[in-house]
Amino acid sequence: MGRNRLFNEADVVQRATHAFLVAGYEGTSVGELVTATGLHRGSLYQAFGSKRGLFLACLRHVVTDRSGDVAMDLVLVALLELAPRDPEVRGLLADQLDRRGVTAHDLGARLLARALIHPSED
Questions:
Q1: Per-residue pLDDT tens listing for the chain (122 residues)
Q2: CB of 63 within 8 A of CB of 75?
Q3: pTM reported for the whole predicted model
Q4: 20-31 burial string, b = 16+ CB within 10 Å, else e?
Q5: DSSP letter string, 58-114
Q6: What integer pLDDT is reported at residue 79 of this predicted model?
Q7: CATH number (domain holding residue 82)
Q8: Which structural domain range is residue 62 located in?
Q9: Is residue 58 part of a domain?
Q10: How confident is the model at residue 16, as a pLDDT?
Q11: Overall number of domains in the chain
C-alpha cells in the first residue's frame, strides 16, 4: 500500500504550469520541475508518472478549469511542442478548443502577443 500524499496536487500543477510557461515543455527539465514544485523527484514520478504526465495534468487543468492567457499560453506550448507527435495531446486540444470555440485566429493573436511580451534574447 502506498503512502499518503503530503502535498496539494492543485498547487503542484499550478507551479508546474508556471515552469512550463516560462521555458516550454522541452526547455523545462525534471530537475526544474522538482525545484518549482517542491516535490522530491520520486514523489513527482510516483504521482504523475513522468514529465509528460505532469504536463498533461497541467494541460487538463487549464483547458477544463481556466480561461484567459495562462490557459491559452499552455495550449500554445502543447500545440507547438507536443501535439505534432502526441495523439493524446492532439485529441485533448481538439476537443477542448472546439468546445470553447477557439479559432486559429485566436491562437495566432495570442502567439503574437506572447512573443511581444516575452521577446527572444537572441
A1: 455 567 889 999 999 999 999 999 999 999 999 999 999 999 999 999 999 999 999 999 998 877 788 899 999 999 999 999 999 999 999 988 998 899 999 999 999 998 887 554 44
A2: yes
A3: 0.87
A4: bbeeebeebeee
A5: HHHHHHHH--SHHHHHHHHHIIIIITTT-HHHHHHHHHHHHHHT--HHHHHHHHHHH
A6: 96
A7: 1.10.357.10
A8: 9-113
A9: yes
A10: 97
A11: 1
How much is the pLDDT for 28? 98
Exposure string for 87-109, b = 16+ CB within 10 A, e = fewer: eebeebbeebbeeeebeeeeeee
54 within some domain: yes
Q: Is residue 118 in a domain?
A: no
Domain membership flag for residue 101: yes
Grid cell 485566429 in the structure block, residue: 105
Q: What would the grid cell of residue 100 be?
A: 470553447
